[in-house]
């Protein structure tokens, strides 16, 4: 259970289940609106709410982790994550649904950071960037398979069953994580939030934030409302939603891998962008406010993931993040 391949699979699975839980809203937005008797825009607001909570809480929780064992912290976060999806599955009101999504967003960002930290520790140096890139790609894999499957389940037997599936998969991942990943790993010393905010004085950081913010802002307008666009705007039947989501996610996965090849060809230096990512060093989680603000979710049709991967083995900024 403690081989590198098994450990890698578990960390990638964490990225996958986080992505599936976060983005399944896209495929079932109409079903949720009908179930809770609210407009589609009200359900779309949950995506915005998720991103805001994600951006605010991730840096704060990264500091609160302190020197606690990351194995125990991750297990606790996985339990909260499971509870949030159970609340979503049993929600009887829009308020409870929103509360469950907030709870989900609170733990999602720090779970990614800890997963990246584990990846940096367990992987040999020559495979570190590879594993980190695949942990990120768990989100892309979720968009290719998880979201379309969840949407199909919603169409066949109801959207609540899709969240129960997420709960079951999450429980399995939690058990495997507990049995397989190192139990004595802790993060290094962290700096205060005010010190982290000093990053914004660096123009490279501001540019590194601006590019994914504009990119994600443009993509999510379409992606979040893809189902009503396909069925209402383009007048395709509901049966076309799952294939559309699959193609959209497949393009995302392909573009991440293709852009990674471009980035490997001295891509970062050629565009002169400095970005940082939390957990890129094996000695602990490096708190990066810029990452939480710039990347509240999956970067579709972008090179963002590969920028972070490029920095897994190199300090772009003096002293790292």
UniProtKB/TrEMBL annotation:
<feature type="transmembrane region" description="Helical">
    <location>
        <begin position="73"/>
        <end position="96"/>
    </location>
</feature>
<keyword id="KW-0812">Transmembrane</keyword>
<dbReference type="InterPro" id="IPR050189">
    <property type="entry name" value="MFS_Efflux_Transporters"/>
</dbReference>
<feature type="domain" description="Major facilitator superfamily (MFS) profile">
    <location>
        <begin position="7"/>
        <end position="321"/>
    </location>
</feature>
<keyword id="KW-1133">Transmembrane helix</keyword>
<feature type="transmembrane region" description="Helical">
    <location>
        <begin position="204"/>
        <end position="223"/>
    </location>
</feature>
<dbReference type="GO" id="GO:0022857">
    <property type="term" value="F:transmembrane transporter activity"/>
</dbReference>
<keyword id="KW-1003">Cell membrane</keyword>
<feature type="transmembrane region" description="Helical">
    <location>
        <begin position="35"/>
        <end position="61"/>
    </location>
</feature>
<keyword id="KW-0472">Membrane</keyword>
<feature type="transmembrane region" description="Helical">
    <location>
        <begin position="102"/>
        <end position="122"/>
    </location>
</feature>
<dbReference type="InterPro" id="IPR011701">
    <property type="entry name" value="MFS"/>
</dbReference>
<dbReference type="InterPro" id="IPR036259">
    <property type="entry name" value="MFS_trans_sf"/>
</dbReference>
<feature type="transmembrane region" description="Helical">
    <location>
        <begin position="161"/>
        <end position="183"/>
    </location>
</feature>
<feature type="transmembrane region" description="Helical">
    <location>
        <begin position="129"/>
        <end position="149"/>
    </location>
</feature>
<dbReference type="Pfam" id="PF07690">
    <property type="entry name" value="MFS_1"/>
</dbReference>
<dbReference type="InterPro" id="IPR020846">
    <property type="entry name" value="MFS_dom"/>
</dbReference>
<dbReference type="GO" id="GO:0005886">
    <property type="term" value="C:plasma membrane"/>
</dbReference>
<protein>
    <recommendedName>
        <fullName>Major facilitator superfamily (MFS) profile domain-containing protein</fullName>
    </recommendedName>
</protein>
<feature type="transmembrane region" description="Helical">
    <location>
        <begin position="9"/>
        <end position="29"/>
    </location>
</feature>
<keyword id="KW-0813">Transport</keyword>
<feature type="transmembrane region" description="Helical">
    <location>
        <begin position="235"/>
        <end position="254"/>
    </location>
</feature>
